[in-house]
Amino acid sequence: MYRLMIAEDEMIERIVLKKMLLKKFGEECQVFEAQNGNEAIEIFKREDIQVVILDIGMPGMNGIQAAEIMRKEKKDCCIIFLTAYDRFDYAKKAISIRAMEYLLKPYSQKEVLNVVEEALRIADKQEDKPEEIKNHGEEEGAEVPDEEENAHQTLGDESDFSGSRLSVLTAMVEEYIRSNYMNDISMSETARAVGYSEPYFCRMFKLQFGQSFTSYLSEYRVREAKKLLAQPNVIVKEVGVRVGTWIPIILQKFSNAWKE
After folding, report:
1. How far apart are the first and last CA of the chain?
2. Which of 78, 195, 210, 247 is deepest in the core (most CB within 10 A)?
3. Sequential DSSP letters for 147-181
4. What pLDDT, on the 0 to 100 scale, is given for residue 175?
5. Which helix (H) or strand (E) holds 244?
């Protein structure tokens, strides 16, 4: 039987989530509950938890801190963040912890159940591994993969890039662009901000977004410009500055059409 834990300080949230999981996985999954980070660590160690769903904003030890300890205790556990915090720094930290998912509240049942189902499938694979393979990375003198290799192992091969396991990276990229699109940002800057080399980031970005970083950024700026142009008495030149200095001529040419 799978061992899953919900770490959430809001009792109603825990009850709803646990009921949903038991309805879907009840016969094959034992669900534990923790109301703060410290309790979550205690249960995690005692019950040898395979999959943990963590809120971030909990009293005492928060979800990020608890996840860091869990990852050190058990390198192959599946960590899923379920939080109301839509923050770039938290998403980036989730990447470094090798979280499987970073889901935002309010969430859809289908989304959560799909992620948990994938986590249980991964837990199955981990249980099937021989013990010597599981512990290979802890052996004295074992080669430690670099950050990019770790990221690749966590996210999977190219066939997995468009799946749910890239949502953390996607959230980080979207948040970074949303916060910086008005500046002169580049793909290399964005890659550094989310912790990847430029070639690796470029490859993942195209697979996830279906276009180049430059095209995505340009389209994002145009969408933001159209919103501004819909406002009365807007000055086109000012719109250009607010969405990126490269766009004023294009805005001037098409502003009337965009306002329609």
Report:
1. 59
2. 78
3. HHHHHHHHH-SGGGTTSGGGHHHHHHHHHHHHHHT
4. 85
5. none
Residues near 16 by Cβ (< 8 Å), separated by ≥ 6? none
Residue 6 CA to residue 32 CA, distance in Å, equals 6
* Helical segments of the chain, H only: 11-25, 37-47, 63-73, 88-96, 109-128, 131-134, 147-155, 167-180, 187-194, 198-209, 213-229, 236-243, 248-259
Between β-strands 2-7 and 51-54, what pairing exists: parallel, antiparallel or unpaired? parallel
Which pLDDT tens digits describe the chain residue by residue (260 residues)? Answer: 999 999 999 999 999 999 999 999 988 899 999 999 999 999 999 999 999 999 999 988 999 999 999 999 999 899 999 988 877 778 778 878 888 888 888 888 888 998 899 899 888 887 766 554 445 444 444 443 444 444 444 444 433 333 444 566 777 788 888 888 888 888 988 888 877 778 878 887 887 888 899 889 888 888 888 887 777 776 766 776 677 655 444 444 444 444 44
Match 């938890």 to its residue by tokens: 49
User: Who contacts 140 (Cβ-Cβ below 8 Å, separation ≥6)?
Assistant: none
Superfamily of chain region 2-142 = Response regulator (3.40.50.2300)
C-alpha–C-alpha distance, residues 9 and 86, integer Å = 18
d(CA 18, CA 31): 7
The number of C-alpha atoms within 13 Å of 55 and in the hemisphere containing its C-beta is 25
Instruction: Identify whether the C-beta of residue 76 lies closer than 8 Å to the C-beta of residue 34.
Output: no
Task: Return the residue matching tokens 């205790």.
Answer: 73
